[in-house]
Amino acid sequence: MYYRQVSKNSSMFRAAQLSALVWVTLAHAGTTANLKVKSLRTEYRQNPFGLDVREPRLSWVLESAHRGEKQTACEIRVASSAELLARGKPDLWASGKVSSLQSQNVTYAGQPLVSEWFYKVLAGINPAPDAVGFDKILIKPQPVGDLKWVKAHYDSARGRIVSEWEKRENEFDLRLSIPVGATATVFLPAQDRDSVRESGKPVDNVAGVQFLRFEKDTALLAIPSGQYRFSSIVK
Q: What pLDDT was estimated at residue 79?
């Protein structure tokens, strides 16, 4: 007899990282009472916000009140939203039924884990509300959770926009490339104005860089096209 137990894990595990849900369907021999799928993990972590691997490993634990019960087959479904999974439409991966005892380090084998969520949210590349063809850009990186770095780009009509950031303890580095014909407003995480630098220099001493204001642990800067390396002290 086969029993189907569905569990879900709202882990964000795109290699850039889109919020993805994993459903695991298990088949096993024996009674169906009190069977639970627990401790769903991606790369050994529960609900990680971001990972730097394109084929993350998935793991889970089968728990039962009856001795000797074991997994004999499984099906993994991965979708970009809970709604898609609820409708039975896993848009990222549907493994199909696989005869396997394996429940640890099952390698993701679905669609490439790259999305606009990565460059729009984590790297923070977006057009300004009044932009035409990305002539006005907003750069608002999001150093969330335990994520330490992000590298992303977007190929706009005016050229490639690059946003790469790294967080090290209380330091934040942001590398930018703004294409010719475009300007950008940068939202740089910072403890205060005095800690903000561009290529090691105070921003007030850098031609073309305009300090707009400081609000909510963020320095707002206006910059023309070009290559930049901003740094700051963060809390």
A: 75
